[in-house]
Design a protein that fits this description.
Helix content: 40-55%
Radius of gyration: 26 Å
CATH topology of the largest domain: Rossmann fold
Number of helices: 17
Bound molecules: ligand ME8
Shape: elongated
Largest sheet: 6 strands, parallel
Number of strands: 17
Function: Is required not only for elongation of protein synthesis but also for the initiation of all mRNA translation through initiator tRNA(fMet) aminoacylation.
Enzyme class: ligase
EC number: 6.1.1.10
Strand order of the largest sheet: 3-2-1-14-15-9
Organism: Ameyamaea chiangmaiensis
Keywords: Aminoacyl-tRNA synthetase, ATP-binding, Cytoplasm, Ligase, Nucleotide-binding, Protein biosynthesis
CATH architecture of the largest domain: 3-Layer(aba) Sandwich
Distance between the termini: 55 Å
Length: 512
Amino acid sequence: MTRRFYVTTPIYYVNGAPHIGHAYTSVAADIVARFHRLSGAEVFFLTGTDEHGQKVEQAAAAAGLDRQAFADGFAADFRAMADAMRISYDDFIRTTEDRHKRCAQAVWDKVAESGAIYLDAYEGWYALRDESFYGEDEITTRPDGTRVAPTGAPVEWVREPSYFFRLSAFQDRLLALYEQHPDFMGPNGRYREITSFVKQGLRDLSISRTSFSWGIPVPGDPDHVMYVWFDALTNYLSALGYPDRDAPLMRFWPANLHLVGKDIARFHTVYWPAFLMAAGIELPKTVFSNGWWTIEGEKMSKSLGNVVDPRTLVDEFGLDAVRFFLIREVPFGGDSDLNRRALITRTNVELANDLGNLAQRTLSLVARNCGGTLPERGVLTEDDTHLLAQVSLLPDLMTGQIGRMALTEALEEVWKVIRACNAYIDRQAPWALRKTDTVRMEVVLRVLADALRGIATMLQPFMPDSMDAMLTQLGVQPDERAFEALGTPLPGGRSLPAPQGVFPRYVAPEAE
Ligand code: ME8
């Protein structure tokens, strides 16, 4: 039976334009989706936009636009960003779609049927920026008198009739979930933080609002709209066709991986499983949260004017250099800083030199000395078999690493092999063999071509466009690019296209 894998990104708020933080989570999810597809799994990959709530309503008002028209504009921009970053999503869900509204209301009904919802009044702190309620004990007062949540978001006192979810009743079941399924969340630091939050005791959660109207009506009580997080979290089910349990895509539930930023880990590891437990719906397998990007050491914010559109970086550095940098720079799960020096260094050293030059040297020697055709596999020396063995270990090694979301380690594994290839080409010096032993030269070039094929095949999820180009130059046909195909050597004699550099060096405009 084909293995299935369902992976999601957060759905992004449409109160502003997409930036590098959004692109980051989407690229990471895309790598996982592509990796599983290439390993032979049937994959469903979901992204989309979160369009309701007070924050979006206020942003639309500030722009003087109709709420739906306002949401339409940014939703289109998020989709364009995903396309520009080659995010290979299978569906793009928008919470203002009817299919989503039906699903959110059906989940609400299920939770209500279980007795976990009651009507009361909410009185307490609310942070618009986080779309989140906070307890008195979490609020601090700044010297200027503004009160802020632990995230730094200003809070306001809210008082209104509200439906509540009996979150307090789920404390033990949540703790049991974390204990019995350590894979339920990652990385480890998050696990400790969330467990201790839940151990401190959970307050019931306000899940409807009455002071504004931009949301999904609560079934049976249209004066209330759903709290935007109740609405938003159900997107992962609406895209599959819930509440129609026989919908064909429902075979993908439970989700294998919700990838989120660490800012929203709590919503996904506390509220979401509790809603699902109440509704009697199976829980997702893993919620993994990525770390936070700063820009040249500063928090990214509109007021600082340092918000980076990933497309601007792509225009300057190329798509795959940006995708590579985002994942390579810091072990996935940790925080990192986007600075130009680091981006330039990684592009020039690791892409242009380590990998780009290796491919260019190998392929141009083949073009010049082997009639532009792939040499036959010949008699191998120990040095050759040693290198090829390292390459052949990559699929298994990386499968383990991607399974643990060790995306950066997986890249490092490939780079070890690339460095081994560079040492091999220097040691074997095929350019010198050209004059002394052409048979051996062909063997060496074939070993390098095979190693490069393995490397490029395994790097496809990270850098799809440039690895497509590299595999084409190596004579690898489109139906020979799955991981499994690596077990079958390419026939010698295939004619190869003229080699072209895949990774240009970055040259600063002023230095040109
Ligand atoms: O929270 N560094 O949407 P959102 C790393 N609609 N990742 C970042 C980042 C940064 N500086 N900034 C944003 C919401 N992100 C809700 C989600 S899901 C059911 C609802 C990424 O538009 C990160 O993944 O505020 C974060 O969790 C997400 O964008 C927040 O996007």
